[in-house]
Amino acid sequence: MPNSILVTGGTKGIGRAIIKRFAKEGFDIATCARNESDLKHLKEELESQYPAIRVLAEVADLSKKEVVLAFSAKVKEFCTPDVLVNNTGLFLPGALHDEPEGNFELMMHTNLFSAYYMTRAFTQEMINRRSGHIFSIGSIAGLTAYPNGGSYAVSKWAMLGLTKCLREEMKPHQVKVTSILPGATYTASWEGVDLPIERFMKAEDVAEAVWGAYNLSPQTVVEEVIIRPQLGDL
Questions:
Q1: Which residue positions in the chain have pLDDT lower than 50?
Q2: For residue 142, what are the CA distances in angstroms to 81, 152, 181?
Q3: Per-residue pLDDT at 233
Q4: Between the CA of residue 23 and those of 26, 27, 117, 158, 167, what are the distances in Å?
Q5: In its keyword annotation, does this UniProt entry include Oxidoreductase (predicted)?
Q6: Between vectors from CA 25 to CA 71 and to CA 217, what angle results, nearest 5°?
Q7: DSSP element (H, E) containing 56
Q8: 3.40.630.30, 3.40.980.10, 3.40.50.720, 3.40.50.970: which CATH number matches 4-227?
Q9: Which of 24, 39, 25, 20 is CA-nearest to residue 207?
């Protein structure tokens, strides 16, 4: 039976790069996003390039608990993921004291609560079989406060805390847990910014870090990976 990976928010940037890296290795893919057209194109691309794998690509807005639960149920019908990558994220710039009303709730539900409910949906099966790897795609904004970071930074600090707690819980069950904390990576969030592309990291480099952490022996886990542009933060 082939291995499988579930990556939330898989049509762009880091999520897409992770999916393509694992698809190359023969993993079945389960993913979701809010844009149906993007999902269709991704599914067609994967099935064309890697005809031996299966692909589940569902429209889902994971800021809503009921949607997370419905999507996770569809994934369970499709496969039992060996790897879960909580990647869904939203960045809205602003300051805590004057950002638009609702920004805090939206980013906490999208960036944090979605990972909480998705993780709860799949950990028991991983515990039962004593294997599995859960990755949280955080941010260096979860390590250092930045101007204009606002609620996004709060959600990423919380994501790191969630992942640290989960790591402790999963230790005796042989389930691995890893925080990926990337710096500025050239994704849709940075499009239109007046900076040279060379100043950013490549999403494919983050995907390689995930693949490398996954491939360690059963007795070893990478707990945190901090990745920054060579010239430092933006």
A1: none
A2: 27, 9, 8
A3: 87
A4: 5, 5, 25, 30, 26
A5: yes
A6: 95
A7: strand 55-59
A8: 3.40.50.720
A9: 20
Name, in order, each residue with C-beta under 8 angstroms of 47's C-beta and a sequence gap of 6 or more. 53, 55
User: Kindly report the CA angle at 96 between 92 and 98, in degrees rounded to 5?
Assistant: 90
pLDDT of residue 101: 95
pLDDT at 193: 76
Q: Indicate the pTM of the whole model.
A: 0.95
Could you tell me if 87 and 139 are in contact, meaning their C-beta atoms sit under 8 angstroms apart? Answer: no
Three-state SS string over 205-232 comes to HHHHHHHHHHCCCCCCCCCEEEECCCCC
> Residue 197 CA to chain centroid, in angstroms?
22
pLDDT of 234 reads 81
Pair 181, 140: CB distance under 8 Å:
yes
Domain residue ranges of the chain, discontinuous segments joined by +: 4-227
Q: Which helix (H) or strand (E) holds 31?
A: strand 28-33
Tally the residues of the chain. Answer: 234
pLDDT attached to residue 49: 97
User: Position of tokens 């945190």?
Assistant: 224
187: CB partners within 8 A, 6+ apart:
12, 13, 14, 203
Rounded to whole angstroms, the Cα distance separating 43 from 30 reads 10
Q: Which DSSP symbol is given to 110? A: I
The active-site residue out of 50, 116, 117, 152 is: 152
Residue 186 known to be catalytic: no
